[in-house]
């Protein structure tokens, strides 16, 4: 398997495991990812963490050696499979965190962009270098990158192929946080900042914020009214408010 799916405490951990190719996304690896996302979705992990094997790379992008000499039909088919796979990640019932522990280029950055959050080691380098290959991003980058860093920065990154270092990535909001020390341990610590809250209510929050970027404000406010009302109907909302009034710690049950 080109990936490993393991359990670390209350979290699922996917490790991209082709360090000899800087964890590049072969088509087989993308298929493995799809299966792993389904397994995680059906399980009880509080969040999914994704990282890369080895000390150099999170993921150096699509496997360039597999991309040449293919028919247009095969290329389109596989790009759509990769897009659909990353969309499954985006729609997991639990939040996800990309632990960017080195290079994240092309499809590797697009994988990280499909996660709810991104944290990064200080030696990480990121970019959408497809333009240097005569290509443009094909696994969601043209759509998710502008939503994360804004149109002007996304256009600059995609049209120049420029590499962004971790400090800049943090400054422009491409990564939520810079980390030192053991990257997986830091990923766990980051995930624990939200993973004790109600999973369905976290899901409503994610959905409402995501819809903000696809809709006019008036429509977004209607969606927020619906989703916040759904949150209000949960047992966890009743528990959270009761616990506040009783000055005790809430016990959420994901209901
Ligand atoms: N694909 C395949 N193999 C790779 C890749 C890759 N993306 N990146 C690195 N490797 C391999 C190298 O070929 C090398 O293998 P070998 O030892 O057998 O020669 C090994 O990994 C180590 O790489 P380097 O020796 O190059 O390591 P360096 O530390 O010198 O450089 C870099 C690291 C800067 C990350 C460099 O490897 C690099 O530039 N890699 C390519 C990055 C890139 O361009 N990524 C984007 C790929 S395209 C993409 O993701 C989206 C395509 C959209 C397709 C949709 C079309 C419709």
Quick overview:
The protein is of the alpha/beta class and 255 residues long. The protein has helices at 27-42, 64-67, 72-90, 107-113, 141-149, 151-160, 166-171, 183-191, 199-212, 217-232, 235-245; strands at 3-8, 11-16, 48-52, 57-59, 96-100, 103-105, 117-121, 125-127, 164-165, 177-179. 47% of the residues lie in helices and 16% in strands.
Protein described:
This protein is an alpha/beta fold. It folds into 2 domains: 3-191, Alpha-Beta Complex (2-enoyl-CoA Hydratase, Chain A, domain 1); 199-246, Lyase 2-enoyl-coa Hydratase, Chain  A, domain 2 (Orthogonal Bundle). The chain contains 11 helices and 10 strands. A 6-stranded mixed beta sheet has the order 1-2-3-5-7-10, sandwiched between helices. A 4-stranded mixed beta sheet has the order 4-6-8-9. Helix 1 packs parallel to helix 3 and helix 4 (107-113) crosses helix 5 (141-149). It is globular. The model has no long low-confidence stretch (mean pLDDT 97). Bound molecules: octanoyl-coenzyme A (CO8). Octanoyl-coenzyme A binds at residues 21-22, 24, 60-65, 75, 79, 103, 105-107, 129-130, 133, 135, 137-138. Residues 21-22, 24, 60-65, 75, 79, 103, 105-107, 129-130, 133, 135, 137-138 line the site of octanoyl-coenzyme A.
- Structural category is alpha/beta
How many structural units, i.e. domains? Answer: 2
Structure summary, number of beta strands: 10
Q: How many helices? A: 11
Strand order of the largest sheet: 1-2-3-5-7-10
CATH architecture of the largest domain: Alpha-Beta Complex
- Rg, please? 19 Å
């Amino acid at each position: 398997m080109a990936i490993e799916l393991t359990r670390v405490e209350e979290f699922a951990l996917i490790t991209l495991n082709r360090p000899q190719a800087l964890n590049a996304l072969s088509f087989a690896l993308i298929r493995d990812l799809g299966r792993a996302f389904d397994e995680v979705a059906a399980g009880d992990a509080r969040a999914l963490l994704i990282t890369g094997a080895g000390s150099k790379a999170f993921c150096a992008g699509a496997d360039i050696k597999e991309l040449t000499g293919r028919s247009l039909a095969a290329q389109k088919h596989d790009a759509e499979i990769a897009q659909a796979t990353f969309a499954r990640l985006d729609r997991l019932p639990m939040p996800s965190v990309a632990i960017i522990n080195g290079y994240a280029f092309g499809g590797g950055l697009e994988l990280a962009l499909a996660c709810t959050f991104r944290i990064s080691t200080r030696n990480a380098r990121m970019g959408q270098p497809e333009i240097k290959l005569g290509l443009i991003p094909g696994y969601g980058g043209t759509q998710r990158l502008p939503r994360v860093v804004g149109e002007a920065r996304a256009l600059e990154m995609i049209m120049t192929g420029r590499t962004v270092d971790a400090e800049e990535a943090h400054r422009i909001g491409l990564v939520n946080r810079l980390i030192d020390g053991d990257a997986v341990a830091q990923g766990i610590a980051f995930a624990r900042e939200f993973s004790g809250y109600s999973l369905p209510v976290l899901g409503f929050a994610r959905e409402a914020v995501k819809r903000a970027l696809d809709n006019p404000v008036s429509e977004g406010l209607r969606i927020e009214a619906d989703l916040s009302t759904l949150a209000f109907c949960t047992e966890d909302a009743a528990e959270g408010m009761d616990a506040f009034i009783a000055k005790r710690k809430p016990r959420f049950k994901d209901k």
